Amino acid sequence: MKRISLTQYLVEEQRLHNSIPAELRLLIEVVARACKTISHAVGKGALGDVLGTAGTENIQGEVQKKLDVLSNEILLEANEWGGHLAAMASEEMEHIHLIPNRYPKGEYMLVFDPLDGSSNIDVNVSIGTIFSVLKAPEGMHNPTEQDFLQPGAQQVAAGYAVYGPQTMLVLTTGNGVNAFTLDREMGSWVLTQRNMMIPAETKEFAINMSNMRHWHPPVKRYVDELLAGKTGPRGKDFNMRWIASMVADVHRILNRGGIFMYPADLRDPGQPGKLRLMYEANPMAFIVEQAGGAATDGKGRILDIQPTKLHQRVPVFLGSRQEVEVVTGYHQ
Ligand code: AHG
Ligand code: MN
Ligand code: MN
Questions:
Q1: pTM greater than 0.85
Q2: Whose CA is nearest to atom 6 of ligand 1?
Q3: CATH of 6-193, one of 3.30.540.10, 1.10.3720.10, 3.40.630.10, 3.10.490.10
Q4: Which residues line ligand 1 (CB under 6 A)?
């Protein structure tokens, strides 16, 4: 079988749909290369001295792991010099990162969760990187934080890398979702799945059940009905999976369906859910919708939310369309 590399895919996509201009192609290739570097570090584990904590906290008050910091640095360094970006923003940095003046500036802005699933690093469970690409306002070479606060519907590209038994890159530029597998010997990304589609119906759900006592009634009702199984209102048995790495849970759902939930709960009204709109919810919502699924915050489409701050959190319900509609309906 003829192998199609990420580069060839991007070039052909541009010829076909005119959707990936050269600068965006460079951006995606640079991010993919950075993910390759992160994957290499992840794969070394204790031998590469990459496990454990860095001894610092990020802006969300979470203890940073060595790999959180390292992955953030790898992405910053890889993307600074290419001339394709105006600025970057990361889950691990309080403020946006402008491209230094010694480099040319481009029209895109890159937003990322450099290392998703940090609690899984030290136990050798799948983790990942999530990224989202926005356009800077016309002619703006020194964007402000305000310029990043665009609804997810305005993303021009989004993707994630998952560092699991295989390292994979899943990508959308608004024309469906495609997946690439890293050929470790050749060091190249090979197209291995075209037009991924999430089955509309599912029997699998993902939620951190330990928070059940804090849930709002609509979420409690929905999960209770799933748990009731065949003899309950849903008339079928459901199975549960929770990896605690959003990338890995979403990757499973893209491949065989399911619903992923991280709801807001009663604990802290000032913190609506755990996941971050800009780095996690928006890119994943874009990918999921492009794969025929749905993504809401319980009330409406995640991609329609107007962000008010960079590190904003949102409730997340995403995956197979029918299930997301049921639980969203319970919130109305
Ligand atoms: P991060 O490691 O980037 O902080 O994100 C972790 C997120 C997400 O990937 C995962 O689904 C969720 O947190 C896990 O939460 P619990 O600790 O509640 O299981
Ligand atoms: Mn994350
Ligand atoms: Mn992270």
A1: yes
A2: 117
A3: 3.30.540.10
A4: 62, 91, 113, 116-119, 208, 244-246, 274
